[in-house]
Amino acid sequence: MSAAKQIDPSVMPIFKDKIKLIQTGEGAIYLVGPIKLPVHLFEDTVQFQWYCWLNCTEITEDFERIIDKLSSANLAEFQQSSVLVHGDFKHAEDALIRMHSICHTGDIFGSKRCDCGYQLKTSMKEIAEHGAGALFYLANHEGRGIGLFSKALAYILQENGFDTVDANLKLGFVDDSRNYSDAIHVLKELRTKPVTLMTNNPKKVQALKQAGLNVANRVELWGDVSEYNEKYLQTKIARSGHEGANRSESVSRSCDCE
């Protein structure tokens, strides 16, 4: 393998005002953006502003030092989270946000075992139609925090009669181990006004409020129920507290893939 090269210093001025340092209790988040990102969404092209962030223990405003380390860090093996912003997110009085947990099978392959792919696209559409909002795509949330390989094992258990919750528990995990602290740090950098959270999970609203998120309201995100995910959705309602306007109709509609 060839030795890592350092960044060409002549390009550093291009990054001026595009990298921000957000200090946390355990280090720093380096936020890159905004970057223009036209997105094909339900036959339309919608303009978003894209940000990505990197969590580091080192705290420095010498961004060239941080960038120099990237070529030797092999970051391709470690997914980073990001956020899509639409409209005047900073100043709009009312803004929609979605904290979307990565779902390799649903978001990429279009798996019908869950409704994640549907919720990803639909939440982006809702944000665009609303006029202002942000979708946080959280890379370390696969399988509610157990990771892709463990999720594959959980799927095998589900094919042998275990529900979603018990499959995680049998593998030695808690039902939900996701952490939203980094996303909330980034959100506070982009907006200080209250937000409306898109989720069917009231427990998530409470958890985010306790973590410091200024949540003014919650809206539901329903759809894409099928024969392949009915048991999964029933488990979400019966064991994880997900709800809609009418709980008796929830299974026939859908549930939040979170």
UniProtKB/TrEMBL annotation:
Its EC number is 3.5.4.25. GO terms for cellular component: cytosol. CDD domains: GTP_cyclohydro2. GO terms for biological process: riboflavin biosynthetic process. GO terms for molecular function: GTP binding; GTP cyclohydrolase II activity; metal ion binding. SUPFAM superfamilies: RibA-like. The keyword Transmembrane does not apply. It catalyses: GTP + 4 H2O = 2,5-diamino-6-hydroxy-4-(5-phosphoribosylamino)-pyrimidine + formate + 2 phosphate + 3 H(+). Signal peptide: none annotated. Its cofactor is Zn(2+). The keyword Nucleotide-binding applies. InterPro entries: GTP_cyclohydro_II, RibA, RibA-like_sf. Pathway: Cofactor biosynthesis; riboflavin biosynthesis; 5-amino-6-(D-ribitylamino)uracil from GTP: step 1/4. Keywords: GTP-binding, Hydrolase, Metal-binding, Nucleotide-binding, Riboflavin biosynthesis, Zinc. Pfam families: GTP_cyclohydro2 (PF00925). Residues 79-219 form the GTP cyclohydrolase II domain. PANTHER family: 3,4-DIHYDROXY-2-BUTANONE 4-PHOSPHATE SYNTHASE, GTP CYCLOHYDROLASE II-RELATED. This is GTP cyclohydrolase II. It comes from Paenibacillus sp. SYP-B3998. The lineage of its organism: Bacteria, Bacillati, Bacillota, Bacilli, Bacillales.
